[in-house]
Q: What sequence folds into this?
């Protein structure tokens, strides 16, 4: 088990030293261009996700706790290290390593007496690392690139065991594969690009409440695959300053899960879901788990402080979703191209 205080100290120290190093010597959002042979970038990003609402099982925007009680809260602070390198003029390898400084969820659960009671979970650690391989098929002025990605399960068991994928989508404890296509096109000072693909999900563990609500067991679940996409539009105001609009999302199909209890709406009415392991003679309200969905968008800005050093920052707002947090996603980072 990782020591949360030690991890936070190491991560914050690394952030300071990394930012200083990059400023003296890049968020790289999904793009169709690949680094030239022998060139690449190194980046550090700080991200903060806050929410006091969620998109529930049916996709409705609801509170984290029942009406009439103090509202719950979700806070995720993370630091991501990124590096990309051009193996050839068309082939690029990228790695991203996120460190969760602190993730806290304050919500509710069911007691042994089947009553709704406050619950709190906190964790920190290394989250899901990613490796991407990109191959550029077409370039200038229209870019077309194929991407293959691998996402590992979190290194931190604490993150896997305490965080709910419904409220805190840091890690689901799975090894996933991604296949996507990326395109971009320049029109003078304007540029538009995007990505669309599929994430093939591995098995994950899920906490399930048995007939006794105080009892929780962890079982293996096979979630549906996810459709992933993003779109970005940018305008170069000056040679060094650009404005961007970023949108991205994920959509997952429904899938089989073990029988358990869920909360619906602001009133937190209880429903049962999952036909697997349902008590004899009982038909669950929902036979299948509705898949995770989240669509968010917002403005960003990018400034070149030197010809090779770029600072990028902005915020996205959760516009729609299901089984996902409905809050804000703030990101700021620095990239150094070499």
A:
């Amino acid at each position: 088990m990782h020591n949360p205080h030690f991890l936070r100290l190491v991560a914050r120290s690394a952030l300071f030293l990394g930012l200083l190093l990059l400023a003296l010597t890049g968020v790289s959002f999904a793009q169709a261009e690949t680094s030239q042979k022998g060139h690449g970038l190194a980046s550090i990003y700080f991200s903060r996700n806050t929410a006091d609402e969620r998109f529930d099982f049916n996709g409705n925007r609801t509170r984290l706790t029942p009406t009439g009680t103090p509202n719950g809260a979700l806070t995720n602070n993370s630091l991501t290290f990124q590096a990309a390198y051009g193996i050839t003029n068309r082939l690029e390898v990228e790695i991203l390593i996120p460190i969760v400084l602190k993730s806290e969820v304050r919500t509710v659960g069911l007691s042994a007496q089947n009553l709704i009671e406050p619950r709190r979970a906190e964790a920190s650690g290394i989250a899901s690392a990613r490796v991407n391989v990109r191959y550029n098929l077409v370039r200038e002025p229209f870019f077309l690139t194929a991407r293959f990605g691998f996402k590992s399960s979190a290194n931190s068991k604490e993150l896997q065991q305490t965080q709910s994928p419904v409220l805190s989508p840091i890690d689901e404890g799975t090894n996933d594969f991604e296949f996507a296509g990326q395109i971009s096109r320049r029109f003078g000072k304007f540029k538009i690009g995007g990505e669309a693909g599929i994430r093939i999900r591995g098995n994950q563990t899920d906490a399930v409440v048995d007939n006794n609500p105080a009892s929780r067991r962890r079982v293996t679940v096979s979630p549906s695959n996810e459709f992933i996409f993003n779109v970005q539009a940018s305008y170069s105001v000056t040679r060094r300053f650009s404005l961007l609009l970023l949108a991205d999302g994920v959509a997952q199909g429904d899938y089989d899960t073990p029988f358990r209890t869920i909360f619906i709406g602001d009133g937190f009415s209880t429903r049962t879901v999952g036909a697997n392991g349902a008590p004899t003679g009982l038909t669950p309200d929902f036979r299948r788990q509705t898949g995770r969905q989240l669509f968010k968008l917002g403005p960003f800005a990018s400034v070149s402080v030197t010809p090779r050093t770029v600072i990028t920052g902005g915020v996205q707002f959760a516009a729609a979703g299901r089984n996902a947090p409905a809050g804000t996603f703030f990101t700021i980072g620095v990239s150094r191209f070499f």
Notes: The mean pLDDT is 84.
